[in-house]
Amino acid sequence: MPIVDCHVHLNNYDKINKRERKTLSLEERLNALLETMDNNNIDSSIILSSYKVDIDRPSTSQIIDIVKKYDNKDGKLGIVAGFTIDNHTEEDLGNYRKWLKDGLIKGIKLYCGYEYYYPYDERYQRVYDICVEYGFPLMIHTGDAFSNTAKIRYSHPMNVDEVAVDNPELNIIMCHLGNPWITDCQEILYKNRNVYADISGLIVGNFTISAGTHYKSKIKELLNYVGEPHRLLYGTDWPISNMSSYLSFAQKLELSQDSHDLLMFKNTKNVFKL
Ligand SMILES: [Zn+2]
What distance in angstroms lies between residue 242's CA and the mean position of ligand 1's atoms? Predict the structure, then answer.
C-alpha cells in the first residue's frame, strides 16, 4: 500500500543542525529528503514552505524550481506554500493563485503562533477565498511551536472553529493535532466536516516508548470521538521528526486495514487531489 507524508520541510533547523553540526544546501536537503523517503518506502511527500524566507528557509518559488529540476513526473513531491501577513506580499499571493491554478502547489499553509494573528483575522480571508476558488486545502499550524518566539494562544486549535464555520467550502487541515490540545482538536474535527488533522510533529527526533504509548491513546480517543477515520492524515514534520520512527508509531496504532489505509494515503490524496 502506498504511503504519503503530507508534512515535510526543506528548512535548515538550528536545533537539528547543532546535533548534526552541518548546514546543507537546498539541493542537499532535497536529496536527503528523497533518500529518506526511499529508505522508508514513502511514495510521496508534500513539502511546506515556511513563514519567512531566509538562508535557512527557501521560498515557495525556490522549492518549485528545485523540484522541477528533479524529475517529478510520478508526482513524488507536492508543494504547499506558506503564507504570513507579516512576511508575504500581494505579489506572493498573486503567484500562489497562479501556481494553484497550474497545479504547481497543492494548498496554502498559515503559521498562526509563529506570527501573532488568529486564523480568523480578516486579513487571511483572501487566502481562504483563493483556496476555495481552486479547490485546494488550507493547512494551519496548531498547538505547540518549534520556536521560543511563537505565541501559542494564536495557534490554539479552538481558533480554527471560527474559520471552519464561516468558510464551509474551505477544507482545513489542522497540523500536529493541535498538540497538546488534542481533545480540543478532536471536538473541532467532530463538529466541522470540512476540518482534517495531520499527526505530524508530535515528537522531535524519535518516539520514546512512553511518548508512543501516550500519543497512541490520544489518537485512539480522537478517532473514537470523531466516529470516522476519514479526516486524519499521516505526516511527519521531517526533518524535525524521524520518518522511520513515525512509520513504526503508525503501525503501533493497530488500526483496522481500512482505517490504516485512510490515514497513510487515502485521506491525503483525497483532500489534496493528488
Ligand atoms: Zn511542520
Answer: 12
CA 7 to chain centre: 4
Task: Report in angstroms the alpha-carbon separations of 206 from 22, 37, 201, 211, 242.
Answer: 20, 16, 10, 9, 6
Residue 175 Cα to ligand 1 middle (Å) = 7
Residue 209 CA: distances (Å) to CA of 10, 16, 213, 256: 28, 21, 6, 22
pLDDT tens digits, 110-166 = 999 999 999 999 999 999 999 999 999 999 999 999 899 999 999 999 999 999 999
Q: What is the pTM of this model?
A: 0.96
Distance 19 CA to ligand 1 centre (A): 19
220 CA → ligand 1 middle, Å: 22
Distance 259 CA to ligand 1 centre (A): 24
Residue 262: left if φ>0, alpha if ψ -120 to 50, beta else—which one? Answer: alpha
Is the Cβ–Cβ distance between 192 and 161 less than 8 Å?
A: yes
Decide if 97 contacts 144 (C-beta within 8 A): no
| Cell numbers linked to 44 | 510521496
Say how many Å lie between the CA of residue 58 and the centre of ligand 1.
14
- Cβ contact 177:202 at 8 Å: yes
